[in-house]
Amino acid sequence: MTKLWTGRFAKETDHSLDVLNASLPFDRRLYRQDITGSIAHAKMLARQSIISEADGEAIVKGLQSILADIEAGTLVMEGAEDIHSFVEQELTNRIGDAGKRLHTARSRNDQVALDMRMYVKEEITKIHALLLDLIKVLCAKAREHLTTVMPGYTHLQRAQPVTLAHVYMAYGNMLRRDCVRLNNTFALMDEMPLGSGALASTTYPIDRDYVCEQLGFAKITDNSMDGVSDRDYCMELAADCSILMMHLSRICEEIILWCTWEFRFCELDDAFSTGSSIMPQKKNPDVCELIRGKSGRVYGDLMTLLSMQKGLSLAYNKDMQEDKEALFDVIDTVTHSLQVLIPMLDTMKIHEENMKQAALGGYINATDCADYLTKKGVPFRDAYRCVGELVAWCIERSCALNDVSLEDLQQFHPLFGSDVYEAIDLQTCVRERKAPGGPAPDCVKVQIEALERFVQKE
Ligand code: ARG
C-alpha cells in the first residue's frame, strides 16, 4: 500500500498495522465530497497564486476525471490508506507533478473534517425530506380517519375514546420536532473547517472565505484547533436520529400490537409482511420489529461517538477515524427505516369496525358518564365514585354502560335522564373532546392543517 507519509521511515509498516489503520473500506463513500472539496481548494490555491494557474487547471481537470470514472464504475477505490490518499495518489498518477501540489496548505485533518461536514449536511437534508414524506402520509391518512373511533390507552388499558386521526397526529407532532432538531443541527454545523491545517492553520496566504463560498457553507470555523477536532455534529445527528428512531420504534410497536389477532385493528400489505417457514397461517410484521430493533443500534452508535471523543486532548487524534462507521450506520439505519416505513403505513389496511368494537368494550366512556352527572351539578369526585360503582355492577353482568336501562341507572343516581345515552355515545364522546389538541374531528383537522403548513414551509 502506498503511503502519503514516506520520507521519515526506513521500513515498511507491518501488515497488521495497515489493516488497523485503513479507513478506505468505509470512508470511500466520501469520494464525492473529497473531490469536490479538493477542487475548491485547488481553485483557491491558484487564485491566491500559491500554485500556478496551469497546475490549478490540471488538478481540477484531473479530479473531475477521477470523479467521472468512480461514478462510471471504471475506477476501483483500493490500494490506499484512506479516501484522501487514494484520490491524491490517483491524481498524481494521472497528471504527474501538479498532483503533488494539491496538498499545499492543507492537512488530511482539515480535509477529513471538511469531507465529513459536507457529507453530513447532504444526509441531514435527505433524512429531513424523508421525514416530511412520512408526515405527509400521516396527514393524508388522518384526513381519511377523522371519525374512526378507537380506544385510547394508558398503561395499555383502554382509557378514553380517540380517533385514528388523533393517534396519527400524535406521531406527526413527534416527527415535526424531529425535523426541527435536524434543522438546528444543520444550522449549528454549517461551518467550513478547511484552512485549519493539521491544527495550527497555515503560513500560506489562503482565502478560506473563497473555499467556503464555493462549497456553500454559511461561514468558516473560528478556531483551527477546534476546526479539525470538532465532531459535535456527528453526536448531534446521532442524538437526533436516536430520538427519531425511538419515535419510529413507538409507531412500530403500536402497529405490531394492532396486527395481532387480539387487536386486529389493521393488516399490513403483503408487500410489507413476512411469513413463517413452518406455520402456514402466519403473517408477521417483521418490518416493524426490525425498525424497533434497529433503534437500539442507533443508540449504540451515539454511545460509540460520545465515548470515542470524551478523553481526547486537542487537536486531531486517530481515534476520531472511528466517527465514520458509527455515523454512517446511523445514517443508513435511519434512511432505510424511513424508506420502508413510509410505503408500509401508506398501504396498511385499517379495520375500522374492529377499532370501534374495541372502543365499545372496556368502559372507555366512563369519564363521559361521570362528566354527564357533573354537568348536572354533582361534584366530580362524587360522580366519579357513582360511575365507578356502576361500572363494577356492569362488569358483573357483562354489559356496557350504554346497555343499562334508565331505571337501573337511576338506582345509582337520580339525576340520570334519558339524554345520558346520547352523552355517552362514542361519537359524542369524541366530538365533545374539543379542547384544542383534542380528538374531536374539528380539533384534529386543525392539527392536520398545522402539520401540512409545516411541511409546506420546510
Ligand atoms: N482517515 C483519517 C480519518 O478518518 C483521515 C485523517 C488522517 N489524519 C492523520 N493525521 N492521520 O480520521
From TrEMBL:
Top-level class of the enzyme under EC nomenclature: lyase
MF annotations from Gene Ontology: argininosuccinate lyase activity
Fumarate lyase N-terminal domain boundaries: 7-300
KW Amino-acid biosynthesis (keyword) present: yes
UniProt keyword Transferase, yes or no: no
This protein's UniProt keywords: Amino-acid biosynthesis, Arginine biosynthesis, Cytoplasm, Lyase
PROSITE patterns (alphabetical): FUMARATE_LYASES
Listed pathway(s): Amino-acid biosynthesis; L-arginine biosynthesis; L-arginine from L-ornithine and carbamoyl phosphate: step 3/3
InterPro entries: Arg_succ_lyase_C, Argininosuccinate_lyase, Fumarase/histidase_N, Fumarate_lyase_CS, Fumarate_lyase_fam, Fumarate_lyase_N, L-Aspartase-like
Domain of life: Bacteria
Segments forming domain Argininosuccinate lyase C-terminal: 363-430
Catalytic activity: 2-(N(omega)-L-arginino)succinate = fumarate + L-arginine
Pfam families assigned: ASL_C2, Lyase_1
Locations listed in the record: Cytoplasm
EC numbers: 4.3.2.1
Database matches in NCBIfam families: argH (TIGR00838)
Family indicated by similarity: Belongs to the lyase 1 family. Argininosuccinate lyase subfamily.
Protein name: Argininosuccinate lyase
Organism: Amedibacillus dolichus
